[in-house]
Amino acid sequence: MSRAAGDVHIAQSALSQHVASLERELKISLLVRSARGVTPTEAGKQLYRHAQLLLQQAEHARASVLSCSSEPSGPVSFGMPLSLAVELAFPVFEAVWLQYPLVRLQMQEGVSGNILDWIKNGRLTLGVAFDNGNLDGLDSVPVVEERLFLAVSPRSPLARRKIITLAEVEQLELVMPMPGQGVRPRLEQAMVREGLVLSRVVGEANSLSLLKQAAASGVAPTVLGWLSIAKEVERGILATVEIVRPTVTRSASLCMLPSAAYSQSALRVRDAAAKTIRLAIARSKWRGVRALHCTDERASNPVAAAGIGRIVEHSTA
Asked: Taking a C-beta distance cutoff of 8 angstroms, is the pair 46, 76 a contact?
C-alpha cells in the first residue's frame, strides 16, 4: 500500500480510505490484508480488469479527439503470436515507425490465446490472433491463412516424404502446445471432423523455440505453420511434411475491441499492419501461406465486421 500510494502521489492513509470507501459502496472486499501486504480478492481482480478497460477507453477517447486536428500520436499496444512474430513483427514495427513517427508502438509477443485475453481485458489496443471461433465481440480484419506442416528432424525417415495424411499423424507421438493454444485447436478440430483423436502427445510446451528444438533433435515431431519454421527449414535444421487428406489450415486476423476503433492512432496502426503483412506475403516464397484481403465495404467501417475477399496463395510445391 505504501508503494501504491507513492505511485499515485497521495498519502497511504488517503489511499486506504479510498479503497475502504470503494468496498463499502460495492459491498464486497476487494483486498485481503495481511502482515505481508495485500492481495486482490476475485472481486478485486474483476474490478481491476474493468478498470484497465475503462482507462484504455479514456485514452482512446483522448487520442481520437486529438487526431481530429493533429497527426496520429501516442502509445498503441500491439500483440502478435510467437509463430507469426518470427517473420512479421519487425516489418510491422518498422512500417508504423516510418509512417507515424509520433505513434509509440508497444509490441508484445505471446501465444494467440493470451493475445486475445489481453485485447479483451484492455491490456492491448489491438493484435493478431488466430481464429478458433473465439473472435466474437471483436472488430476483426482477416490478414493471413497458413497450412499446417509436420515438422521433423532431417534425420527422421519421415523427412524423405512430401506428404502425410491426417490419419497417419494421429498415430505419431508428438510434442504440442498446451490444450487450447497454438495450432492445437485447429489440429484437434480437423481430427474430430475425420473421426480421429489427438491422443499421442508425449510433451507439451507453450514455447515455440522448445517445440522446434524437440522436433529438430528427434525427440518427437510437432505440427506448425510455415511462418514458424521457415528459417529452420532453409538452414536444414528442420524438415517438413505437408499434412493432407484433409489439408489443415488456420487463419489469423487483426483484432481490437469496437471501442478502440474510434482511436485514429489504433486504426492507422491496424491499416498499416494489415498492408505490411499482406505485402510481406506477396513478396515471399513461404509455402502454403495466403494473404487474406477484405473486399467487403464494411471493412472500412471501424466498428463493423470485416469479410474475407480475394486470396493470394503461394505454391506448396
From this structure: no
Helix (H, G, I), strand (E, B) or coil at 137: coil
Buried b (16+ CB within 10 A) or exposed e, 250-286: bbbbbbbbebbbbbbbbbbbbbbbbebbbebbeeeeb
Residue 195 Rama label (left phi>0; alpha psi -120 to 50; beta): left
Residue 312 has pLDDT above 60, yes or no: no
Q: Which amino acid is at 94?
A: E
pLDDT digits (tens, 9 = 90+) for 68-110: 556 888 899 999 998 899 899 999 999 999 999 999 999 999 8
Q: Give per-residue pLDDT as tens, 117-147.
A: 899 888 899 999 998 888 888 999 999 999 9
Distance CA 160, CA 240 (A): 9
How far is 116 from 233, CA to CA, in rounded Å?
29
Say what the pLDDT of residue 301 is: 37
Rounded Cα–Cα distance for residues 127 and 107 (Å) = 9
Q: Is the peptide bond before 246 cis (omega within 30 degrees of 0)?
A: yes
**Cell triple for residue 269?**
496502426
The predicted structure's pLDDT at residue 60: 65
Distance (Å, whole) CA 84 – CA 227: 6
Does residue 304 register a pLDDT over 70?
A: no
295 alpha carbon, distance to own chain's centre: 23
Which sign does the torsion angle of CA 212, 217, 223, 229 carry? positive
Contact 189, 180 (CB under 8 A): no
pTM summary value: 0.68
Residue 312 CB contacts under 8 Å (≥ 6 apart), including other chains: 278, 281, 282, 290, 291, 293
